[in-house]
Each structure stands twice: as structure tokens, then as C-alpha cells.
Amino acid sequence: MTQLPILVPAANLAKSPSNVRTVSDAIADAQLEANIAAKGVRQNLIGVPVSRKKGHYRIIAGGRRLDAVHRLIEKGVFDADYQLAVLVLGNAKDAIETSLEENFFNLTMNPADTCRAFQDIIESEGKTPEDVAKRFGLTERFVRSRLRLADLADPIFEALRNAEITLNVAVAYASNSDRSRQAEVFELLKDGYYRSNVNEIKRQLAEDTYVGSDPKALLVGRDAYIEAGGRVDLDLFSDSTTERWIDGDLLNRLVADKLAAAAEALREREGLAEVRVIPATHVTYNDTWDLRPLKGDTPELTAEQQARLDELESEIEAANEAWEEADEEAQADLANRVDMLEAEYRAIENQSPILTEEQKAGALAYVVIGHDGEPRLHEQLYVAPVEDETDEDSVQETGDDETVGTGAGTAPGKPAYSQRLSQELAEMKSELLRVHIASDPRFALDLGTFWMVDKATRHSGAYDLATELKADKPWSSLSGFQSGTLAAEEWGKIDEALDRSWTEAGDTCQRYDAFCALPDEARAAWLAWAVARTLHAVTADSKAVALINHLGTKLDIDVAAWWRPTANNYFDRLSSKAAILAHLDEIGGKELSSRYGASKKHDLATSAEKIFAGTVPIEAELRDAALAWVPDVMRYAEAAPDVVEVEPVAVNDEDHGPTADELPQAA
Asked: Which end of the chain is more exposed for a tag (fewer CB within 10 A), N or C?
């Protein structure tokens, strides 16, 4: 290999068949060509001499650069004698290996590094995004998108650099240029289920922001918003309707001011008692459900209006008759005409009610924002609520204008709240309490336990507990079932040992305080009891059996010590004698099962109960195996057992085998 590259005319260079790269990318090739056109080829090629053609070389590394130069020569961008630096290999046998090294060890740039590189070029060289795009054969939109990534909040940018988030996730965060908002959403989602969900990230970032075509934005106006300090998120392809206004709180304040001024002007102009503001395009049911609509008198039709209705009826009838005989194109025209005539008919027939000045003086109206951004008076008026000035102990009222007092024994002059306001205040009060409960795990544990056990020990409703948390005993299809097992006896002992002194303390608050005053061990016992009683009974074919088995394994439960199969709870319930004999075969083989093959099923079940209870004098090894045995369905096995085909044992139901009383002699 020579020490230094030599300059060779591009016309004397050709790609070598030994070049391992055979597949390229048209877009990437165009980007490379644009960069070479702007800056030339800055990295030498590697080639081998062509035999019997002095000064000619086959390129084994740098073929894409060579192709780009040839294209630029054809386009007239480079002169025909354009030269390239070539490092000539002395041994052509190294050609394939060298080509592979050139391509195999090529590391794609990290997107974060690309972003900062573009940013450095623009800042240090005074270039524009358009200049960078031309230099690297990219679109201006691509360059601007990478520059936007360069301005991401630091935690997000570092996550991109360290490959902790994907490029798509980073682009989602860049959809909002507010770096503080980006950081808030990233901190909220980074450890959660939605950390890589692009749509959820964009949704979170778009909260409390508005596009320029939003009615709120149209109402305030772009100039007024910016003058008040509002920020607009722009990119190359946004316009006045798609740009995003990211200071939602500021915009909402400006909207409130504009609507308040419009409401006051409308109140004075129309002579209304009250005009309320709704910063939306419509009035919802929740805003008016406790108000009574104001009904005016529908005006009688004038002679001209009645005559026009008669004309419209005739025209509609004639159009419908003509439609039946018209062709497809004419039918479409007639259908449109009928729609227009019917709309005019409804407009005349359904006139707006007329309100008297007295009615207006006691009316409540709503101002909303039209889709064009103009304040609009909602078409329906309501009877304005009248403040009760009586000296009643409570401001509780009934009827369409239902209001709610601040509580029992409300003093005169206290505010009367609508149902809607009462609910909103309750929501905010609950939010405050939730935050503090969630911030104190020990408090939450005591409260949660109390909620569950207080409801579980009652015989009536629990509406005064103000919670959805409960520890109800699951429903069972086995009505009145009593297992009679050791576990059932132990559960009764646990239940009896619970300290129930707090249940007699008085009302809910007093019971709660009394419960919290119990020793730690007593409260912990109630928690364990409440959690345990919620456990469902799941059959072996249920998906939930995997967790049941896993829990039993973690608790290292010795099933054989707690539960023994009996004729009543197991053997007599099996479908055939063969199944019982198969279980005997499991512990003692054919020798044991054959001893009882002639028994009737009930006698066999009774015998099996005694064998597996260890009360039959059989061999010590068989006895130990029998006492340790439980059916697979009762084991807490991590994996479901394989289904084993049971080979029936020859039986003779007609023969009378040994009875339970004869069992000792069977051994």
C-alpha cells in the first residue's frame, strides 16, 4: 500500500466488482450528491490498479462517492477532468476485506448529534435552514424538524442521545415548543405505561393550548394575544389557522374579559335581568338543568305569511310529483329545491316566541362564542333565580330552580348554591383530600382498611363512607356450601379473634377514630381479613388460576396438611370407579388398586378415604405416600399439569368386594 493517496481523474475510475455494497438508497445518494456538489469529495477513495491500463483504477471503497461525482460531471456541475484522491492498495487480494471494513464499521449518527450539528452550522457559519438543506441534499422541513429537536428540554434531549426514547417519541415532544411544558409531561410519563405512546404525549402537550382557528383565538385576536405576552408555536408549514397558541391560561383570561364586556352590553341593550358567560360555543345541559326555560307567546301568522305557506305547500307537492318522472340529474336538482322550500316553510311556521318587557326584566341569558369568534346570545332564555331573603333555617328548596344550602341549619344570609355549583365545590374539596391521602401512605392504609371493614361488618348501606373501596365477599353459585375443612375452622377462629370494640363507638367518624386507636397488630389483622375475604374461587380452567397457584406457592402452603380427600368431598363425587382406582394406582401401583377392583363405587370411595387419611394398616411407604397425596387440581402448581389419560382398571360391579368393615384384612 502506498503511503499517500494520489489524484486520479474521475474518468479513469470505475467501481470494482469486489465492492461488497450492492444495494443503495436513492434518497441517501441524492443527499450525498448535494453535499459533494457543495463541498467536494473530502475523503479519499480506495482502489486497486487495472491490469494493462496504466493510470486506471477499480474503486473498492467509496463507490457511492464516485457515482455521485460521475453524475455531477454529466450534469456539468464538475469539469470532465475532475480529480479524486485515491489510496492505492498494493495487494488486490485485500480488496473484498477492505470493502467490507469500509461499509461494515460505518456507524449511523445518533439523531441527537445530527440535531446539534445542524444547530452549530447555523449558529457558527451564519447559515439558514435552507442553506443546510441544500448542502446535505435534504428538505428544508427535515432540517427545521431536527433543529426543533435540538431545542427540546434537556432531560428529553439527553434521553434521545442515550437511546432511552425513540426518535418518534422525541418528535412528539417537539410538537410543543414550550420547554417547561415538555419537561412536565416527560416527568409525568417517563416511568408509566404511556411513556412511548406518541398520541398520548401529543395529547398531554396540547392540553390548555389552542390553534389559531379556535373560536377563542378568533374572539381575542392574534395581535391582542401577543401584546398580552402570549406565545405562538410556529413552524414552516403552519399558517394563521393551524398555528398553536401555547399560553392557554392567558387566552382564557382574555376570553373571559371579552365575554364579560359583551355580556354587560347585551344585558343593557336587551333589558335582561342577568347574562351569564359560557366560554364555549354552546350551552350544555349541566349549565341549565336546574333552570326553568322562559316561554314567550308565539306570534300569530300574518296574512302574507299564511299565503306564503300555502304557496310553499303547492310548490313542494309539484316538485315531488315531478321528481317521480325526472331523470337522475333532474331528481337531484328537485331534491335540493324541496329541501330549500321545506326550510323556508319551517322558518315561517316556527317563529321565535315574543317576550314582553316584563319577562325580559326577569330573564337569565347566556353569552357563548360563535364559531366565527363573535359573542352570541344563546337563543333560549331562562327564568332568573330569585335570591331567597327569608329567615328560614335552611335555603333548601324544591322545584325546577332547586338550590342547595351550605348545610343543615344554614344561617340567614348564607349563599344558596345550585346543584351544579355544589357538585363542583364537592369535587374540588375531594381533590384536595385525595392529594393529602395519597401523600401519607400510613394514613391511607388505616383509612382504606377502615373503609373496607366498616362496610363489611354492616348489615345496611354504607353511603356515609364516601368511597368506592370495598371488600365484599365474592358471590358463589354454591348457595349454603359448608366445606367443613380445617381451613374453614381456622377462618372462623381468625374472624372471632378480630377486635370489634371499635364497631360500637358511635357514628362513622367516631368508629373511624376508634379503629385508628387500635394497636398496630389489631389493625393489621383487620386488613389481612378484609383482603383475604375478597378472594374468588376459581376453577382450573380459569385464567385466574395461574395467580392463585402463584400465591399459594409463595406462601408455601402444605395442602396435604390442611386438606384431606374424603368420600363426601371428593371420591364419591368422581365420575367412575376407574378414577378412584387410578388414584390408588398413583401411590401403590397396580398391586394396591387391584385389591379394591371388585368393590362397588361407594364402598371404594369409603375405603379410599381411610387409605388417604392414614387410618388403614398398610405398608409404611404406602401410608406416607397416601398422607402426602392430594389431587393435582388442589395443588398450588406454577404450571398446569399435563392431562393424563386414565387407563381403566378391570372391575366387576356385580361382584361384592370387601366392605369398609373388612378393610383391615385387605392389606
From this structure: N
∠ CA 356-358-363 to the nearest 5 degrees?
A: 90
Instruction: Give dist(CA 648, CA 62) in Å, integer.
Output: 77
Is the entire prediction scored with pTM above 0.90?
no
Enumerate domains of the chain plus CATH numbers: 6-104 (3.90.1530.10), 441-533 (no CATH), 545-666 (no CATH)
Rounded CA separation 120/356 (Å): 72
Residue 129: strand, helix, or coil:
helix
pLDDT per residue over 557-593, tens digit each? 888 998 899 988 888 888 888 989 999 999 888 888 8
- 94-103, 390-399, 429-438, 573-582: which is most confident: 573-582
**Between 418 and 247, the higher pLDDT residue:** 247
What average pLDDT does range 594-598 have in this prediction? 86
The closest alpha carbon to 260, from 271, 250, 252, belongs to 252
| Separation CA 549–CA 556 (nearest Å) | 10
Ramachandran region, residue 285 (left: φ > 0; alpha: ψ -120 to 50; beta: rest): alpha
User: Are 388 and 416 within 8 A, CB to CB?
Assistant: yes
3-state secondary structure 28-41: HHHHHHHHHHHHCC
Burial (CB count <10 Å: 0-12, 13-18, 19+), residue 344: middle
Angle formed at CA 558 by CA 554 and CA 562, multiple of 5 degrees: 130
Residue in the block written with cell 397416601: 626
Q: What is the mean pLDDT of the chain?
A: 82
Q: Hey, CA dihedral for 593, 598, 601, 604, is it positive or negative?
A: negative
Q: How far apart are CA 663 and CA 653, in angstroms?
A: 18
User: What are residue 417's DSSP bridge partners?
Assistant: 404
DSSP structural state of residue 581: H
Which residues touch 510 (CB under 8 Å, ≥6 apart)? none
Q: What's phi and psi for 381, nearest 5 deg?
A: -105, 155
Grid cell digits, residue 620: 409404611
Helix (H) or strand (E) holding 167: helix 167-173
**Residue-wise pLDDT tens digits, 191-249:** 888 888 999 898 888 888 898 999 999 999 999 999 999 998 876 556 778 888 988 88
CA dihedral 433, 436, 442, 448 (to 10 degrees): 20
Cβ–Cβ contacts within 10 Å for residue 223, how many? 8
Angstrom distance (rounded) from CA 79 to CA 69: 10
Q: 296, 288, 248: which is closest to 368 by C-alpha?
A: 288
Q: Is 370 helix (H, G, I), strand (E, B) or coil?
A: coil
CA distance 263 to 217: 18
CB neighbour class for 386 (10 Å; exposed up to 12, middle 13-18, buried from 19): exposed
